[in-house]
Design a protein that fits this description.
heterodimer, A: 122 residues, alpha/beta, Rossmann fold, five-stranded parallel sheet, 5 strands, B: 430 residues, alpha+beta, 6 strands, 10% strand, globular
Chain lengths: 122, 430
């Protein structure tokens, strides 16, 4: 069965480009744009990987990740966080919250695909 | 000659700053209070041992009393020397240096002041990058749009077969995003290039702070009862947002009520009797200690700071004082007496603190937390903590230097502090 990724991002054109890329790589892609309901969307979808934006409407990526890591079933779910904030303390904050990989916008497609492959290979 | 003739005024000014009653100072230097009164009103010349004794008790250089500008120069040189850890013996020769090489001394002091000013700018910009919501949102918009363009352009350029429909779609997305990027970048540049006065206010509270600063935190019309709050607000076009006007109305209403309850001139007279004793003053005027602290901070011609916090730790009022750094954004140091009293409403805390940073400065703080709003059954008790901040020029020998506190973690050098929330830019950079 195809690997399943949930893309939690609110930029429509980033969603479109990344969905295209990941589908072309053989992934099954679902998307979600609202931070406030992201945790329940992840619980329902039970993906193999989450690509999570740092700054989302309704709830920040860090808050979503923190909630997610408190759920036993999702404590080790691979999460790739995308952010426009590149300061070291943001990265440290994300690492404390339990992120697996942290990537700063504007990223390259190759970087994203490599990260996704690495995370699922585990 | 003019400078010397004002020595008495400087003694009075320093005594008031030190919170000493006239009678106390007179007793410590062995003269009568009435003679000291004549000196302070420049009606008796002063010099020699008496001047040295007064300077010692007030904890200042004698030259600070006899020579205003020269004292400031020497103080700047001392700060510069202390900042680089110069040896005590060298520092003690500062007056000799200033006397022999006045031109070089001015250059050095000027360079030191410039360094301090630039450091403040760095702190402000660092704060702004971290906490300015408009800047953070603008940067996010620009970088996210750039990411979308880069991703779509790479897909088109990577040589893989793409259906004509998808090609058209990505071309349209790139066109749309490139226009959005141009607009976002232009808006960001406009924001960064705008008048600093306009962009400096990241919140309504900042607008109010700037408004109060522009008035020197003094409103004579409200003090005298000749002007209403509405009339003051009508002459404040700089309060652009509705939220800022609302906050300013609250602050001005408080100032008006405080002025009615505690007359400015009567407070100055009472201070002569009691010295810096807010509890005694509160009893004398029959008002709360917090009100006295606010009135003491509002006395004209004094160097006194005031901060007021709500129970969540947000500063709802700030009156800065030279040397005591109050962060514009983000959380303050949790070690301030201001936050200690939140745990014990009604208790008045008097404590000497030493604020750490690029410059170390000592302050006497009075803090009290008092309920706000009317009493209600079974409702959460809202509390405001108020802290008066008095600079201490040079602690007397044998007196405590003060409990170390910071400004905010971002610029605090106390690495091992249990209250640290984030690394300091002084140690790890940006």
């Amino acid at each position: 069965m195809d690997k399943h990724v949930l893309l939690v991002e609110d930029e429509v054109n980033i969603i479109e480009a990344m969905s295209f890329l990941l589908k072309r790589e053989g992934w099954r892609v679902d998307t979600h744009s609202d931070g406030a309901t992201a945790v329940s969307a992840i619980r329902d979808a039970r993906p193999d990987l989450v690509v999570l934006d740092y700054m989302l409407p309704g709830k920040s990526g860090i808050a979503i990740l923190t909630e997610l890591r408190a759920l036993p079933d999702f404590a080790t779910l691979p999460v790739l966080m995308l952010t426009a904030r590149g300061q070291s303390r943001d990265r440290e904050e994300a690492e404390r919250a339990g992120v697996n990989r942290f990537m700063t916008k504007p990223f390259s497609n190759t970087e994203v695909l490599n990260a996704v492959r690495d995370l699922v290979r585990g | 000659m003019i400078r010397e003739s004002l020595t008495g005024s400087r003694i009075r000014e320093r005594r008031v700053i030190a919170g000493l009653k006239q009678a106390d100072l007179a007793r410590q230097i062995g003269i009568s209070a009435s003679y000291l009164n004549l000196i302070e009103h420049n009606r008796r010349r002063i010099g020699g041992k008496l001047l040295l004794n007064i300077a010692h008790v007030l904890g200042v250089e004698p030259s600070a009393l006899t020579e205003g500008a020269e004292a400031a120069l020497i103080a700047s040189l001392r700060e510069a020397a202390n900042d680089v850890g110069m040896g005590v013996a060298e520092v003690e020769r500062v007056e000799e240096f200033a006397g022999r090489f006045p031109g070089w001394a001015e250059v050095l002091a000027g360079a030191h002041r410039r360094v301090l000013s630039l450091e403040r700018t760095v702190e402000t910009l660092s704060d702004r990058l971290t906490h300015d919501p408009q800047l953070a949102t603008s940067m996010h918009e620009v970088l996210s749009t750039a990411a979308a363009i880069r991703s779509a352009a790479s897909i088109l350029a990577d040589g893989t077969n793409i259906s004509p429909d998808w090609q058209a779609r990505f071309h349209a997305n790139i066109d749309q995003d490139s226009r959005r990027l141009a607009d976002s970048a232009k808006a960001l540049v406009t924001y960064l290039d705008a008048n600093p006065e306009e962009t400096a206010h990241a919140s309504p509270q900042e607008e109010v702070d700037a408004f109060l600063d522009a008035h020197g935190h003094g409103f004579d019309g409200l003090e005298a009862g000749t002007q209403s709050v509405d009339e003051v607000l009508a002459q404040a076009p700089q309060l652009a947002s509705v939220a800022a006007q609302h906050l300013a109305r609250q602050v001005l209403g408080q100032i008006e009520a405080d002025a009615r309850a505690v007359n400015r001139e009567k407070l100055a007279e009472a201070l002569e009797d009691t010295g810096m004793d807010p509890v005694a003053l509160a009893q004398r005027f029959g008002v709360s200690v917090a009100r006295i602290l606010r009135r003491l901070a509002a006395q004209p011609g004094t160097q006194r700071g005031l901060v007021v916090s709500d129970r969540a730790g947000s500063l709802v009022f700030r009156r800065p004082v030279e040397g005591f750094s109050i962060p514009r954004f983000g959380a303050c140091c949790p070690l301030w007496p201001l936050f200690q009293v939140l745990m014990h409403p009604g208790q008045v805390l008097r404590e000497r603190v030493q604020q750490q940073g690029r410059r170390v400065a000592t302050f006497d703080c009075f803090a009290v937390a008092e309920p706000v709003g009317p009493a209600q059954y079974n409702a959460p008790q809202l509390v405001h903590a108020t802290m008066l901040i008095l600079p201490v020029n040079a602690p007397d020998q044998g007196q405590t230097a003060g409990r170390p506190v910071g400004s905010t973690c971002r610029v605090c050098p106390r690495e091992l502090c249990a209250g640290r929330r984030e690394p300091s830019i002084l140690s790890v950079g940006f």
